[in-house]
Amino acid sequence: MGSFLGDHAITSQGTSFLQWIQATGLTCWNELLAFGIPIFLSGSSGTSRSSVIDLFLSTSPLLNPSMQICFDLSLGSDHKMVNLTFTPYVLPPPPPTNHPRLLWNLSKLAQPDTLKIYIDTASGSLDNLTEQFSAFLSSSPPPVDSLCSAFAQAIYDALDTAVGRRTPRIMQKYWFWSVDLQEAMDLRERSYQHWRHSSGLQKAICWMRHQDACHAVRLSVQHRRCETWKEFCNKLATQDFAKTTATMKRIKSHHQTSPVFVDPGGPQVAANKMADHLQQIFSGQFLPVRRPPDQTVMISSPIAIDESCPFTHLSVESAILKLPTRKAPDVDHLHAEMLHPIVKQVSPVLCLLFQLCWQWGNETKGCDFIFTVAIFLRDFSL
After folding, report:
1. What Gene3D superfamilies does the annotation carry (predicted)?
2. Are 138 and 197 contained in the same domain?
3. What is the pTM of this model?
């Protein structure tokens, strides 16, 4: 980009890119903070080349910007690592400290003694909830949110007593890295620094040592790849067959492309077209001119619970038993594995909860039904 960045290399691509930067009014921070300092350094093919390639652009000014170019790091690339730091105008929110889900040692429920403790503890709490829920029948609009929270808390307490909480597993981000790889990388960086700060014939000797260190890093990476692949294959061959098939299914799904709506004008154009299309579809222009009147009736008194009520103990119990296992929980943190052992104790409480919502109809808030109908939404037969 020539004199704009203090670069000696001038190309047609750089000229076109410079014209685009100036036309859009972008700020190039390499010009302001690192003018004339090359970021790309190459000595291959017996020639020395340098240029400013990696750029930092912004649409608005930055607060307290500073740029640092790490010339003493090799990193196995001709591009030097560049750090641009600045003070954000709005501080980002802190990362969450708590795990988004409550976890328990559910595998302990396979032990008869632990299962008995869980059932006995849950039975006492759920029996008390049955009496509390029954008090709201035909009296006043029930606080469904509070009742749902009390139901979930009763199961939480029973799980805490029987199996205990489980701390979330910390994902290993550096599973591929090893001590041998780190030592090879450190040797490569030290040899590169020696080469940069040497002179005369010693510089040629340091360069040869640096090339040997780079070759050793490549061999170490290749060896580690073969090692991790063998570990992965051995794990698939020795672990439970269900886990193996799940792993293969996950790998296959990652290699399958999902159909997406694209446009030659770019993703923003595609998003705008899709938004316009959905706006047209749901605008109501396709509805018939003559439509029946709204039949919604706001009731002021509860509906009597008789044979017309769709919720019974047996229907709720059947729906719970049909819940699929090994599925992610909803916002209530409850799995099907938690409800199946205590289905006899849970079904009366949930039946009363469903009956209360059905009895008072529109008197309860729409958002309150999320918890109560979750089970029946999963059961397609109801």
Report:
1. Endonuclease/exonuclease/phosphatase
2. no
3. 0.51
